[in-house]
Design a protein that fits this description.
Strand content: under 5%
Shape: rod-shaped
Number of helices: 3
Length: about 200
């Protein structure tokens, strides 16, 4: 308990000692000057020096060890903090290096994916162009076949129509040119063919 209370009072005692030194210093300097107003009082000086020596002895006796321990512990704490800071810095640098490596790998992977996508796109483009050309060729051939078929149908329809017109014209001419005797002769010939 006494150590704790002395440790707690240590800053106060240091400040108190400093203040006493500051108060005593001007008096000492004034007394050291030659030709002071009252002269030199050696006995007063002796008591002041003795008083100061006793104060220093008391401070060293009671505060010497706690101050050494305090500064020793403070040094250890600072060294420990520095060690932990170095370790944390090393860990942070390792983590940064890992992250940079991962980013480099990700950049390479992204580039590889982009290149693969470009290659796939070019391949798909070529395939679509090829399929389009094939389909275009099939459509042309189908159109050609349709045109030929329509042409045949149109020719057949024209022939049929032409034949029908020719028959109608021939009938009309025959009706105009045939006489009753010719008609009877044609009917008889037709009957003979059918019988024979």
């Amino acid at each position: 308990m006494k150590r704790l209370s002395i440790r707690k009072k240590l800053p106060f005692l240091i400040i108190l000692t400093g203040a006493q030194l500051l108060i005593l210093l001007p008096t000492l300097l004034y007394a050291m000057e030659e030709g002071g107003k009252e002269g030199t009082d050696w006995m007063g000086w002796a008591w002041k020096i003795l008083n100061f020596a006793v104060l220093i002895f008391i401070l060293v006796k009671f505060l010497g060890r706690p101050m050494r321990e305090y500064f020793k512990k403070r040094t250890e704490i600072i060294e420990q903090s520095l060690k932990e800071a170095r370790e944390a810095k090393e860990l942070a640098q390792k983590a940064l290096k890992e992250v940079q490596e991962k980013l480099t790998l990700k950049d390479q992977e992204i580039e590889r994916i982009i290149n693969s996508a470009k290659e796939t796109g070019e391949s798909e483009k070529d395939n679509l162009i090829k399929q389009g050309m094939e389909m275009s060729e099939k459509i042309r051939e189908q159109a050609k076949l349709n045109i030929e078929m329509e042409l045949k149908n149109a020719k057949a329809a024209l022939r049929a129509e032409a034949a029908e017109l020719a028959i109608k014209l021939a009938e009309k001419k025959l009706k105009e040119e045939l006489t009753e005797e010719d008609k009877l002769k044609l009917i008889e010939d037709s009957i003979k063919r059918l019988e024979g």
